[in-house]
Amino acid sequence: MTALRHDWNQQEVQNLLALPFNDLLFAAQQVHREHFDPNQIQTSTLLSIKTGACPEDCGYCSQSAGNDSGLEPERLLPLDEVIAAAREARDKGSSRFCMGAAWRNPTDKSLQRVIEMVQAVKDLGMQTCVTLGMLTEAQAQRLKQAGLDYYNHNIDTSPEFYGHVITTRTFQDRLDTLAYVRAAGIKVCSGGILGMGEKATDRASMLLALANMPQHPESVPINMLVKIEGTPLQQVDDLDPIEFVRTVAAARIMMPESWVRLSAGRSDMSDEMQALCFLAGANSVFYGERLLTTDNPGENYDERLFQRLGMKTVQITETAACDCDNSATATQDISATA
Ligand code: SAM
Ligand code: DTB
Ligand code: SF4
Predict the structure, then answer these.
(1) Is residue 308 classed exposed, middle or buried when 0-12, 13-18 and 19+ CB atoms within 10 A define those classes?
(2) Residue from 85, 87, 79, 82 nearest 124 by CA
(3) Which of 293, 167, 138 is nearest to 230 (CA)?
(4) Which of 155, 170, 191, 306 has the most crowded CB, counting CB atoms within 10 A?
(5) pLDDT value of position 320
């Protein structure tokens, strides 16, 4: 069994990324098979619960108030709309519902409304995830008490490249929130975006930052940049898809027990590229026709793809509404199938 490591160095990761492609994929698939059923895939559905007008200046994002993407801002959605969307996602076979808000950080008052959403989605029997920007220690604890399963907070890129993409917060701000989430006992979902003009050394450095955390994030989303008109990264050169697959494989090798999610950008990927990502160890996707503000392949398309590849989705089992400790049932749910 591959041991979990937290002591990677930069050169080692660069060497891993530079292996002959077949050797890298073989190694990743071996690690993958030690920890997971290689034909199983976890699905999460996203909903933007508060869209646009964000004060942050993330260079990739349609929702930054400073980016002229033409997106119509929306206020925090009412609870009944969130419940309806979650129920639909559940009925289409998604096991986790992820709610995203375009905030730098939530106010305590808006957090209370999100907590009501988390509790209602849990009552539908789904796992819950939210991504709300920076949190205080106390806010992370409130979310834990509400029964939240996962908090998504991406480091996005390497510490070295970070300031080229975002200037309104620091890499350390991201790490601080992640530490509060971890300390509160919420599962961590953290990854990044590839194809923003970063170098291979930045991709290595981003993976290093994730894998050398005291505990690996349970979920690691790897996004391909979705180029959005009106954002500073609209014109950046495409990343070689092979480099993307290499990064997925390295993530799998470095974080053997984590769910590696092939995230944004799938609508622009060929089926064959996605299949290579699954071979490289990706075992989770965002399911449904929308990500937050952009398109995703849709359940029907994905169902056909999974069928062609002989892959089965993780089912919601014993996570149904109960007043038991949800962290235990969520782990059980996953480990029973991993
Ligand atoms: N505002 C919160 C935050 O930034 O933490 C939560 C929502 S934010 C949209 C969630 C994540 O989506 C970002 O951290 C980024 O990694 C990813 N993302 C946003 N826009 C993207 C794009 N155009 N292409 C790929 N990933 C993107
Ligand atoms: C993540 O890593 N990717 C998701 C989720 N976490 C919140 C968001 C992708 C957003 C893609 C662009 C959009 O739809 O606005
Ligand atoms: Fe705001 Fe999040 Fe978009 Fe950055 S990524 S502009 S914080 S919504």
Answers:
(1) exposed
(2) 87
(3) 293
(4) 191
(5) 35
Ligand 3 pocket: which residues have CB below 6 Å? 54, 56, 58, 61, 63-64, 102, 133
pLDDT digit string (tens) for 32-41? 999 999 999 9
Strands 192-194 vs 96-101: parallel, antiparallel or unpaired: unpaired
Using the mean position of ligand 3's atoms as its centre, give its distance from the Cα of residue 10 in Å. 28
Ligand 1 centre to CA of 100 (Å) is 9
| pLDDT tens digit sequence for 299-330 | 889 999 999 999 998 877 633 333 333 333 33
HEC-encoded secondary structure of 241-306: HHHHHHHHHHHHHHCCCCEEEECCCHHHCCHHHHHHHHHCCCCEEEECCECCCCECCCHHHHHHHH
Cα(16)–Cα(246) distance, rounded to whole angstroms? 9
Closest by CA position to 192, among listed 205, 173, 177: 205
Q: Residue 296 C-alpha to ligand 1 middle, in angstroms?
A: 14
Could you give the CA distance from residue 212 to residue 32 in angstroms, rounded to a whole number?
19
Q: Which of 49, 60, 61 should be mutated for ligand 3, with most atoms under 8 A from CB?
A: 61
What pLDDT shows up at residue 337?
Answer: 33
H helix or E strand, kind and range, residue 25: helix 21-35
Closest CA to 23 of 246, 240, 182, 277: 246
Measured CA to CA, the distance from residue 99 to residue 82 in angstroms comes to 9
Per the structure block, which two tokens stand in for 126? 């789904």
For the segment 37-67, what is each residue's pLDDT rounded down to a tens digit? Answer: 999 999 999 999 999 889 999 999 998 998 8
Which of 142, 174, 182, 189 is flagged as catalytic?
A: 189
Which candidate in 129, 182, 266, 277 is catalytic?
Answer: 129
End-to-end distance of the chain based on CA atoms, in angstroms? 14
Question: What confidence tens digit (pLDDT) does each residue in 146-169 have?
Answer: 999 999 999 999 999 999 999 999
